[in-house]
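Protocol step 4 of 5: obtain the predicted structure for the target chain.
Materials: sequence only (see below). No template structures provided, no constraints applied. The aim of this step is simply to have a reference model before the mutagenesis design in step 5. Sequence pasted as it appears in the construct record:
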Amino acid sequence: MRGLILPLLFVAATAVPPSLPAQCRLCDQPSTALAPGAANGDDIQIDIETDINFDRLILARPGDGTAVIRPDGTRTATGSLSEVGARAMVATVVVRGQPNRDVRVEIPTRIELFSLSGGRIAFDQVESDLPAVPRLDSTGRLTFRFGGRLRVTGDAEGDYRGDLPVTVEYL
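Step 4 output (C-alpha cells):
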C-alpha cells in the first residue's frame, strides 16, 4: 500500500469596484488614504478558514479510484483507494460585506491538481452547503463549506495541489 497526500488549496477572488487604483509602494510619499471613488464599504471580503484537504489517501492497488468529501464532512473511498485519512477536511469560507445583502457565489465544478513530478488528477463534483439564494446575515457575514470528488487514475503517488477560485458578488 502507498500513501497519497492530496491537499487542495484554493484562491479566493472577490468582486470589488473596478475603480480601485493600486498604490505605489516604491513612491517617495506613499499614502494610506483611499483614492477618490475607491471602495466605500461596498466591497466584499472573502476569508478562507480551512482549505479542503484529503489528508492521506491509501492506494490499495494501481487503478482508478475516487475519494469524496461532502460539505457535512462525511468521506468515502472507492476503487483503488482503500480509505481517506482521518484528518481530511472540507473547505470553510467566510464572506463579509453589507448586512442583509443577497450575493452570488461561483465555485468551479471541476479543476485539475498537479504534483511536483508532473502527475495530474481531477477534482470535480464540487458541492457546497450554500442556500439557493445566499444572503449575508444581519452582521454582514456568510459562512459556507464545500467538498467534492477526487478522481485518481493509475499510480498517482505524490503530493497534489491546485487552485480553486471562489468568486462572490452582490446581486
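Step 4 remarks: The chain has one domain: 2-13+43-170. Residues 56 and 85 are 5 Å apart (CA to CA).
Proceed to step 5.
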